[in-house]
Amino acid sequence: MPIFTAPDGTELAYHVEGEGEPLVVLPGGPMRASVYLGDLGGLTAHRRLILLDLRGTGDSAFPADPATYRCDRQVEDVEALRVHLGLERIDVLAHSAGASLAMLYAARYPDRLARFALVTATPWALGLQPRAEERLAAARLRKDEPWFEEAYPAFEAWLREDADFDPVFAPFFYGRWDDAAREHDARADEESNDDAADVYGSAGAYDPPATRAALARVTAPVLVLAGELDGGTPPDLARHAAEAFPYAEFAVQPGAGHHPWLDDPEWFAGRVAAFLDADPA
Questions:
Q1: Closest CA to 245 of 279, 213, 205
Q2: Structural domain containing residue 266
Q3: Which of 132, 140, 145, 258 is the most buried (most CB within 10 A)?
């Protein structure tokens, strides 16, 4: 397990999977260890994944200053990883809340990006939040599922801020609520740093107008990939996030939720690999 040192002295770990050109992968959660990403649906057949454990998660050390869990303060961790890898420019894939970290990195270091894939992105860095009605509309697409009748009222109450998070509505974040999805969801608590997650998007983490202005100058190709059934980041929200980039393509994976590499691994890996390997325009 490789280790490198962040600018503040925190030792950070990453995991290497697969063969080929490196692809730096930033996990979501926020602040969930990268192990939940697995091999990203077999993307390891196309790329060598550099799966970063963000500070205080997985095999990375806890920082001396918990305030450094804030999203914008982790940008330099990503840049330190690039330097450690000895790469002039990096391809980056970010999932969910990790997309906000990736956007801040792109805004600060646009010349260090080669290609940029945002998967079911949570675009807090752009000042975008999923609206309850959008998420409920995605949830209603699942009305024929056997678990829907119990899960939907609990999901609606949570989105209306009338109830706490309830594991009963976890199926809305997966395109297929099968044994693999249940196991994946069951590991979330043990793989996450909840204290760090509370700091990740705290006051001062984001400056959407400044980030939008910076991203408008990013020349790297961008893929924004949404899941058709995603109860976390509905496709319309992801489409708006794609509009922040001058050279972005937008794709919706049919039948997929918030973790599309689980729902249809072949479709996901093929679509992402095609983007990463495309010839420059």
A1: 213
A2: 3-131+193-276
A3: 258
CATH number at residue 234: 3.40.50.1820
Give the residue from 257, 270, 267, 101 showing the smallest Cα distance to 184: 257
| CB contact burial 169-186 (16+ within 10 A = b; e otherwise) | bbbbbbbbbeeebeebbe
Backbone angles phi, psi at 190, to 5 degrees: -75, -20
Classify 230 as helix, strand or coil: coil
- Euclidean distance between CA atoms 135 and 156, whole angstroms: 9
Q: How many CB atoms lie within 10 A of CB 8?
A: 14
Q: How many domains does the chain have?
A: 1
- Residue 68 has which token pair? 């450094």
DSSP label at residue 5: E
The 10s digit of each residue's pLDDT in 8-52 is: 999 999 999 999 999 999 999 999 999 999 999 999 999 999 999
pTM: 0.97
Residue 166 in domain: no
Question: Residue holding tokens 């997985």?
Answer: 58
Q: Which two tokens stand for residue 13?
A: 């770990």
For the stretch 190-232, pLDDT in tens is 999 999 999 999 999 999 999 999 999 999 999 999 999 999 9
User: Coil, helix or strand for 138?
Assistant: helix
